[in-house]
Design brief:
Blueprint lengths: L9 H24 L27 E7 L5 H4 L16 H4 L23 E4 L4 E4 L3 H5 L4 E8 L5 H10 L9 H9 L9 E7 L26 E2 L18 H22 L2 H24 L6 H7 L9 H13 L4 E7 L7 H25 L6 E6 L3 E6 L10 E4 L3 E7 L6 E3 L1 E2 L6 E3 L2 E2 H11 L9 E3 L2 E3 L15
């Protein structure tokens, strides 16, 4: 149905608006398809905010190693030796303070304290405490900043993961990678500005699902959404030409399709039509750039040795870490790796040991590899999950086995690279790793700090939707200056 045929007054008004919008859309398309790769969006892009970066950036790009399911800070980072003296005793009411529990432990008759069974030691000149489960991370401890006082608002996985990705517990907001793509654009015209990859851990094979909306653009134009790289078949869906279609035929088809879409863009001025044209063109260029990127045959044996044996197996966390470095080298703005399997309500020792075998070596190798290539100077790396785990045991507590429930009150993440004060520990928790005692850091504070490293004032990166100017940090958030170099 053509709306111009329904209302005789509409053509003049729509033609006026369409002419204005299509002029802007054409400028945006020219920006996307231009030959020069820029470190920021051109002001000619109609959708992009102006004046970015707001100040001199310390980082150009981000690699976010998201550990889905919530790693136990008590067994990895937050050393609490005194807990062994009260092993099996009830968690004091003075510590819990009436804080809410999940439905999985709210009906437990007892909340026995479960001390970590793992040994801890200090590492590096900064003296960071790390579990024996993280020997490779220990070797790069002086490159890292451990934030032990993260806290969040959600107590269940989906809203908590959504909150970390979008700054809101309810679905529908843009992901952090989409905000950065919107604000800063791409450094490589042949690759997406934002790439997401998923790996399944060896810990909990029935861990929470991850939805495509977690790297979606929400109410931002869809050209800013993340592109998911797969480990089976084409790295990106429909990247290969179908049988009987060669590159010349594909180019001719895209030319004709682009012309048809341009007619609609001229008529209606819908910015999503400009996005569609640009994405078709990007997909065509990716037919050459992505296979070259994902083929690691040119990597020397020493690199695979650094990242670990699983780095040769597509789809593993180690292989994705190596691809993250290759994406970083090619100027992709935001790379996010999601690794599932950290939701360890029961049999935590068995499961967390497997998860650390998945992630420890590759995470440390990524930091070391970036540093030796000079890329850590302008790349920010973040490692962490959606919340922490409880000091009390879920299920049956034995000498060698225990489980832990969700704990949003305090947990640990680490950061490394551009703009971060290396070799430091920030924030403190009580003797039970249950409450924060110094320097609390909210999720919005972490987001504000990530944006600050990229030269963005989080209060000024906004998008108007349904009459309100939205931002990643919603209505709060402070830059954590104590972790900045």
């Amino acid at each position: 149905m053509d709306p111009r045929a329904q209302n005789p007054w509409l053509p003049d008004r729509r033609r006026f608006l369409a002419h204005s919008a299509s002029a802007l859309g054409t400028a945006a398309l020219a920006t996307l398809l231009s030959g020069d790769a820029r470190g920021a969006v051109s002001p000619d892009d109609a959708d992009a905010p102006s004046g970015l970066p707001h100040f001199k950036p310390r980082a150009k790009r981000v690699i976010y190693l998201f550990q889905s399911g919530a790693p136990s800070q008590l067994d990895l980072f937050d050393y609490k030796p005194a807990l062994r003296d009260v092993q099996g005793s009830e968690l004091p009411d003075s510590v819990r303070k009436g804080q809410r529990l999940t439905g999985m432990t709210s009906r437990q008759a007892s909340f026995p304290i479960a001390a970590s069974k793992y040994r801890f030691a200090q590492h590096g000149q900064g003296g960071a405490w790390l579990s024996e489960l993280l020997p490779h991370t220990a070797r790069v401890a002086d490159e890292l900043c451990f934030v032990k006082s993260l806290h969040t608002e959600a107590i269940n996985h989906d809203p908590a993961v959504t909150f970390f990705q979008t700054g809101a517990q309810l679905a529908g907001r843009p992901s952090i990678g989409s905000w950065l793509s919107y604000g800063l654009g791409s450094e490589n015209r042949d690759l997406p500005a934002f790439v997401a990859m998923i790996s399944q851990g060896s810990g909990n094979p029935t861990d929470q699902p991850l939805y495509d909306r977690l790297w979606g653009s929400g109410f931002l134009p869809s050209k800013y959404q993340g592109v998911k790289f797969r480990s089976v078949g084409d790295p990106v869906l429909n990247l290969s030409n179908p049988p009987g279609i060669d590159s010349r035929a594909r180019r001719a088809m895209l030319n004709d399709l682009g012309a048809l879409n341009q007619l609609k863009l001229d008529a209606f001025g819908d910015p999503e039509i400009a996005t569609r044209i640009a994405q078709y063109e990007l997909a065509f260029r990716m037919q050459s750039s992505v296979p070259e990127l994902t083929s690691v045959a040119d990597e020397p044996a020493s690199v695979f040795e650094m990242y670990g044996p699983e780095s040769r197996t597509p789809g593993t966390f180690a292989a994705n870490c190596l691809l993250a470095r290759r994406l970083c080298e090619r100027g992709v703005r935001f790379v996010q790796l999601f690794h599932r399997g950290w939701d360890q309500h029961v049999h935590l020792p068995q499961q967390i040991e497997a998860q650390c075998r998945d992630t420890d070596q590759a995470s440390a190798a990524l930091v070391a590899d970036l540093k030796q290539r000079g890329l850590l100077d302008d790349t920010l790396v973040v490692w962490g999950g959606e919340f922490g785990r409880t000091v009390y045991c879920q299920g049956k507590l034995t000498r060698d086995d225990y489980g832990r429930d969700h704990h949003p009150r305090c947990f640990t993440v680490w950061l490394a690279g551009a703009g971060i004060r290396a070799g430091t520990t920030y924030g403190q928790t009580d003797d039970h790793s249950y409450n924060i005692t110094a320097d609390p850091v909210h999720v919005h504070d972490l987001h504000a700090t990530i944006l600050a490293c990229l030269g963005i004032d989080h209060t000024r990166l906004t998008f108007k939707f349904q009459g309100r100017h939205h931002r990643l940090t919603d209505v709060r958030g402070q830059v954590v200056n104590g972790i900045l170099a």
